[in-house]
Amino acid sequence: MQLIPVSILTGFLGSGKTTLLNRLLKHPNLQDTAVIINEFGEVAIDHLLVEQAEDGIVELSDGCICCTIRGELIDTLVDLIERRRSGKTSAFRRIIVETTGLADPAPILHAIMAHPLLLQAVRLDGVITTVDAVNGCSTLDRHEEAVKQVAVADRVVLTKLDLVQAGEIGGSLRPRLEALNPGADIVDAQDPQFSPEWLFETGLYNPETHSADVDRWLKLKAPESPDKHHHHAGESHHDDRIRSFSLVHDRPIALTTLETFFDLLQSGQGERLLRMKGIVQLAEDPDRPMVIHAVQSVFHPAGRLPGWPGPDRRSRLVLITMDMDEDYVRRLFDAFVGKPSVDTPDRAALEDNPLAVPGLTF
Asked: Which helix (H) or strand (E) holds 23?
């Protein structure tokens, strides 16, 4: 069964989430979409003909389905999938989940990536975060949730650009967003050529080529220098705590070595690991790369590609972290994969005591 892509639409209070959602619902390319929202009153659907309304679910004449979150999000998702299977609703092709403005996206990602029933029916496509061009910088200064929403995003949508001068965005907010999340595409919501296709299909699979596109998914970019934040003296910024970096290894890695590294990283630093994506060449089966995707302490069940989609067969991990020492993670990774280092213990000593890595403490 083809898995249904799920996109998370998030963004701080007043950032234009609901306005963007209304715009998406009107677009013909998003027919046959199920939208999970917090309250119907927040989304104006008067412009669309309501064909059927039953038990918290509204079906629209263009094939879209809207439903409110009843209790836990996981229950709503499971109920929606069951209704689709039983024919009680139309066979939607995509799900969009709109979060509350104060929501940390991590628990929602956890639900999609770890629930056994959902794993059989849906796949995480990506995270879309709206940022208010007028109040974006002050919101990032004051609210940690807003910083996390940007940090884990695959697409960042700038809203209310018509209310500010272009120089204000280019000189402050946009560089700050690029520094927070170098791998995210920044989209102008008021671009005349704006299309919903820009916001979706952000996962490993590229529907245009019908194959895995590792480079597009990982988006390896050099992180911005902290100096480019242009902070004023005496100010404290939540985004100073965010780091985005990559780990690259050019030799196959044993599965047990990889698992031990992940176990230590997860147990000691799990809450600080906002998101990790990667592809790994295993020593046991180097021709079929393993796909890694994690959010904090939750790892999506690892998948395998039938082959390498391109000539680059290196193992690559991209990490977005909060309050995590990048040097610490690199030293731990190097100790396990065997990169030469003057203070890396030999393999036998490491297997006897995995925590005995010079300079590393949990």
From this structure: helix 17-26
